[in-house]
What we know:
This protein is mainly alpha-helical and 248 residues long. It has a domain at 176-248. The chain has 7 helices and 6 strands, in the order αββαβααββααβα. The relative contact order is 0.13.
Amino acid sequence: MLLALGATVALMPSVSKATLIGSTHDFSSGTNGYATYIYGGETTTYNNPCQICHIPHKAPDAGQTHAPLWNHAASKNSSYVTYDQGNSLTFNALNLTATLGSSAACLSCHDGSVAVNQSYGATLPSQNGKTAGATAFYVPTFAVETTAATAGDFVRATGSGPYLGNNNLTHMHPIGVSYSAAIVADPTLRPLPAAGTVFAQMLKGPQQTVECASCHDIHRVVGASATISHDLIVDLNNAALCETCHQQ
């Protein structure tokens, strides 16, 4: 019987969960093409997909970057305008304050103000923060507008950047907002989730804030992010993602 059981286990297919490796945020050599840099006449490529964002030694304080062991340069935009507070009766009625937490790490790339492979110690927007013979790589700005832009007039990054002043987040879902504070005033929001659930993992930090990572998990280890487009933790179809928080 034991031998038969052992044979059965051996025949079972192994199941591995997807990770950052091979994803759209894997910038190691031979993947998405952002990792090559030139310094001192020597061309080098990253073979560690974690290195673009994280560094194991001599990292800045996490409080300065909102991310652990952060290796990437912080945004060149000094502040952000979050959500359309002036035209939202709901937001104003909640009397909420939006203070970006971990979303600041995401925006360091996604507001287009620094190169995608610029390290935190760099002073200039060039490849890996160096100036020797290389052109910086910038990513398009996603859902970020110039301060002068109007609703729907989203920036489409062209040229080489940097795209300074792309700090207007008013026409996107609010981030940096405490969910535990919001449910006190908004009866349409679902109660706080039980610890250990996917919903609980979507709320960040002691203030249980809504951040970019509340919906997107670029490491692809939370919820359905390994199989859903844009690394969504919950599928957007049939309003499943929206109804994680909202009762409508």
